[in-house]
Amino acid sequence: MESRRVAVFEICVGILLIVIGFILWRWSKQILWILIYPPPLAKPLIESLPFLFWGLGALLVVDGVRRKIQDTRMQMHAKQSRLRNSGRGEVAMRKDKLLLFGKFYDVEVYKSEKYAILLDDRKIRIRMPGSGKPRSREYEYLRKWIRGKLLKMLTNFLREYERVMKAPIGKFYIKNQKTRWASYSQKRNIHFNIKLAALPKRIIEYIVIHELAHATQPNHNRKFWYIVEKFCPDYKKRKQELKEYSLVIQKSKIWQKMLNMYT
Ligand SMILES: [Zn+2]
Fold it and tell me: How is domain 135-261 classified at the CATH fold level?
């Protein structure tokens, strides 16, 4: 049984014992009457029983409450440290912000003559004709803009690592894949997921290295991870972070809207 349920159980049993103790105390005389020939010890025993129940009940209630407080504290602690460790303490509260290259941005849409997207430290300002609230057209425009940024970053990483890893590639594509972050085909083409644009640059770098390592090792065997580690020594940490980001993207309203429109 989990600790929280134990606590509730203890408190309930404790209260029950206290109630039984009260009943015994109130009716101890009547109980004594039921016994026609009470043995000599019966009277002090029945008279002391309520105190025994109260004592036990109180102990259980106190312990249950203590357990409950401890449990709540531990949960809060775990949640805080999880958020702190991931370095993205705002994740849970910022579902409606856009996660882009590992940073959260407010998205604001303005009516304007021309199309434009401006990015500063905290905000992405979308300027487009006839806009108010973000609607499908805004998401489409934003998605194209994001795709362009990702394309540029991937091109740079691929150019760099293709050379240093001596891993030639064919073409590469950016797509909306349901499950995979990227894949390396037999024809040496790489498919990247558009969702990569939500990740910090260093994790995108790990994914590029990972895919290029497939040029010589199709499977995730020891040799494969050896190659990855050679070019990305802390790949385990980046891999772990990648998992955490998947969840954040799943929870992000803007990302989900952009992905749903992607055909
Ligand atoms: Zn792989």
Answer: Zincin-like (3.30.2010)
